[in-house]
Amino acid sequence: MAGITIDRARSAGTVSRYIFGHFAEHLGRCIYGGIFVGKDSSIPNVNGMRRDVVEAMRNLKVPVLRWPGGCFADEYHWRDGIGPLEARRRMVNTNWGGVVEDNSFGTHEFLELCRQVGCEPYITGNVGSGTVQEMSEWVEYLNSDGDSTVVRERWKNGRKDPWGVRFWGVGNESWGCGGNMRPEYYADVYRRYQGFCRQYGDHRLYKIACGPSDGNLEWTETLMKNAAFCMDGLSLHYYTIPGGWSHKNQALTFSREDYFETLALAANMEKIIRGHAAIMDRYDPEKRIGLVVDEWGTWFQVEEGTNPGFLYQQNTMRDALVAAIHFDLFARCCDRVFMANIAQTVNVLQAIILTEGDRMVLTPTYHVFDLYKDHMDARQLDCFVQSDRIGTEKHAVDAISASASEKDGRITLTLSNLDPEKAREVEISLRGEEIAGARGRILSGRMADYNDFGRERVAVRAYTDFTLKDGRLTAVLPPCAVAAIRL
Ligand code: AHR
Question: Which domain covers residue 469, as residue numbers?
Answer without folding.
Answer: 383-486
